[in-house]
């Protein structure tokens, strides 16, 4: 009986340790990550970069740059393979459409892709991620 109690206590303490670890004790601080030379960005072209290994689209439109996740909010297909028309990128898998300026899914704006801050320094594009 006491062995069972000991195993249950051990299980409970391991769960709470995991909750402490993942539940807010560790803080993730985003940082600026170099992605691409600014002169490599083509206007109206979907540029794929991988800051910290994450797939991010850099899209230059009318001289402005937008940084948005390449992972579709539906089933995670790569939006990099989608089609871009004006400010809308369409997922190649099931045609969900997102506004690259806000990350919003056009049919339900509460669903959003992550959008990232970016900056240019010495001709290099950095993304905060
Ligand atoms: S995975 Fe993008 S629309 Fe389904």
From TrEMBL:
Cofactor: [2Fe-2S] cluster
Record organism: Candidatus Methanoperedens nitratireducens
Pfam families found in the cross-reference section: Rieske
Taxonomic lineage of the native organism: Archaea, Methanobacteriati, Methanobacteriota, Stenosarchaea group, Methanomicrobia
Residue ranges annotated for the Rieske domain, each copy included: 33-127
Keywords of the record: 2Fe-2S, Dioxygenase, Iron, Iron-sulfur, Metal-binding, Oxidoreductase
GO molecular function, one term: metal ion binding
Cited SUPFAM superfamilies: ISP domain
Highest taxon listed in the record's lineage: Archaea
Protein name: Ferredoxin subunit of nitrite reductase and ring-hydroxylating dioxygenase
């Amino acid at each position: 009986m006491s062995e069972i109690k000991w195993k249950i206590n051990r299980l409970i303490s391991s769960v709470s340790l995991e909750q402490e670890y993942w539940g807010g004790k560790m803080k993730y601080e985003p940082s600026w990550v170099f992605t691409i030379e600014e002169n490599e960005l083509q206007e109206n072209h979907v540029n794929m970069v991988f800051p910290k290994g994450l797939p991010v689209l850099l899209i230059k439109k009318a001289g402005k740059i937008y940084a948005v996740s390449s992972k579709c909010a539906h089933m995670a297909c790569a939006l990099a393979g989608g089609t871009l028309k004006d400010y809308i990128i369409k997922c190649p898998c099931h045609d969900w459409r997102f506004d690259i300026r806000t990350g919003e899914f056009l049919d339900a704006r509460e669903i959003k892709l992550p959008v990232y801050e970016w900056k240019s320094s010495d001709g290099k594009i950095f993304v905060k991620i």
